[in-house]
Write a structure and sequence with these properties.
alpha/beta, eight-stranded parallel beta sheet, four-stranded antiparallel beta sheet, globular, binds beta-L-fucopyranose
Length: about 500
């Protein structure tokens, strides 16, 4: 009876919600709840909110690289104030090919370049300002960093995204309506003249009490420009396709829902709704049952973890000794990709315009470590699809005598994110012993535990918002890393 009632509600919702519903069952990106639903029904319906095709393809990349490069590279600052002389920009051995080649070998699928940071210096010859590389001595003022990077990406089939800082400390018009026109024009140039763009990254930084100018951004217009010129691009951070995870340490949440009432603060209505619900990108809870019960609308808004391989976002020679170690980088991978997020790792080129040797060596080791770990599947029946009800378990056979310390779980997110609680057990001395447990799975969840050699594993879906669609259960042995000694895997990764 309850099920029939629910189905009837679902059908009526299709017309009521005005949402983009796919295959008569799923709601792409957004679902607005009608008032009459009780909490459990809202939670169940939220399990039918799914990513758009762009969001899905974005999630499947898993690894993206951030490139912070610009006038700060030459002044040694992290945040320029916009008064820097463009003549300072003069890389001596600029090599976009080296960036792309190195990153691709390490497993990265996209590069996002700071086309403009807060200092307003543009890395392409924009018509909107003279504060750009056209006023620099590099390539006699005829260079175009955006073009060279994009062309290198195209040669290697690497995706390409742009970071365009809304906050601009150089633009004379910043602080009034004219700046919105300038910004839209900059976007238009970047989204028109360089072929396909896959991600547009709007950071949320803005001036503090020392900056007198406050800009009211015309976000909806910026969204329209992107959607019309690059319909395949996701809009990130102040965009509404990809969410900032909420920290810059490289960590996803233990419980990371891609379905959430959170939206970026781009209008008074959204700001007030976020305040009413007590949520922001840094909130611990972005998707619990209690939160959904209070929400009016639920969105597919997945998390991206941005973190730098060095202390700063830009290159500083004095940080050459402070590059993260392999154990730190691997740990970030497990806490980001392994916690239902995309990792956006920043690797800043130096004054030559090349990735520094310390960074490239680390990237090479990182790529080999991840490949070696996950290319050796230890479960014999790992790709079986499993439609799991709450409380159901399934056993998985291991290749005999193989040692494992890592389990991978994945949900088919094209059918929504649903799992709320799961348990991983190993068959040890004739009984099931718990190895790990967790809450959300989503696109991917990785769990680590001490080495064990077991003939079989048992996975229990202890809680779920509807029948869970488990697409993958894998088990692996991740080589041990000797923290702090030489930052190399102790069972050496072979070439
Ligand atoms: C922040 C900026 O202020 C930092 O400089 C950096 O670009 C980071 C990724 O985003 O908002």
């Amino acid at each position: 009876m309850r099920k029939i009632l629910f189905t009837a509600l679902l059908v009526s919702l299709i017309s009521l919600s005005g949402c983009n519903q796919r295959a008569n069952t799923y709601f792409e990106k957004k679902l607005t709840f009608p008032d009459l639903l009780i909490s459990d029904q809202k939670v169940k319906l939220s399990a039918y909110v799914v990513p758009t095709q762009n969001q899905y393809e974005w999630q499947r990349m898993e690894l993206a690289a951030f490139i912070h490069f610009g006038i700060n590279t030459f002044t040694g600052k992290e945040r320029g104030d916009g008064t820097e002389d463009p003549a300072l920009f003069n890389p001596t051995d600029f090599d976009a090919e080296q960036w792309v080649y190195t990153l691709q070998e390490a497993g990265f699928k996209m590069i996002i370049l700071t086309a403009k940071h807060h200092d307003g210096f543009c890395l392409w010859p924009t018509k909107t300002t003279s504060h750009s590389i056209a006023s620099s001595p590099w390539r006699n003022g005829l260079g175009d960093v955006v073009r060279e990077v994009k062309e290198a990406c195209d040669r290697h089939n690497m995706k390409f995204g742009i970071y365009l800082s809304p906050w601009d400390r150089n633009a004379e018009s910043y602080g009034d309506q004219r700046y919105n026109t300038v910004f839209a024009q900059q976007l238009t140039e970047l989204l028109t003249n360089y072929g396909e763009i896959h991600e547009v990254w709007f950071d949320g930084a803005h001036g503090d009490e020392h900056d007198s100018k406050v800009q009211r951004y015309d976000w909806l217009h910026f969204y329209q420009v992107i959607d019309s010129l690059q319909p395949g691009a996701v809009k990130a951070i102040m965009g509404n396709d990809v969410r900032w995870v909420g920290n810059e340490d490289g960590s996803g949440r233990e419980t990371e829902w891609s379905t959430t009432p959170l939206q970026p603060d781009i209008s008074d209505i959204i700001i007030n709704e976020n305040i009413r619900l007590g949520i922001s990108p840094t909130a611990e809870d972005l998707g619990s049952r209690d939160l959904i019960a209070e929400a009016k609308t639920i969105h597919w808004y997945p998390s991206e973890v941005d973190v730098s391989i060095r202390p700063g976002w830009f290159y500083h020679p004095e940080e050459d000794q402070a590059v993260k170690t392999l154990p730190e980088l691997v740990d970030i991978y497990f806490r980001s990709v392994g916690m239902n997020s995309v990792l956006l790792l920043n690797i800043p080129p130096d004054k030559r315009g090349r990735l520094h040797e310390t960074d490239t060596e680390l990237l090479r080791e990182f790529g080999r470590y991840i490949t070696q770990t996950f290319e050796n599947e230890k479960i014999t029946n790992s790709d079986m699809e499993w439609k799991a009800r709450a409380g159901e378990s399934r056993e998985y056979n291991m290749i005999p005598d193989e040692t494992i310390n890592t389990v991978m779980l994945q949900e088919d997110i094209l059918k929504g994110q649903r799992v709320e609680e799961f348990i991983v057990e190993g068959w040890i001395n004739n009984e099931w012993i718990e190895l790990a447990r967790g809450t959300t799975i989503g696109y991917k969840r990785l769990l680590r535990f001490d080495d064990v050699t077991v003939p079989k594993l048992r996975i229990t879906i202890a809680g779920t918002r509807d029948i869970a669609n488990i697409s993958k259960v894998g088990a692996y042995h991740a080589p041990h890393l000797d923290e702090g000694v030489d930052a190399h895997p102790d069972d050496r990764v072979s070439d």
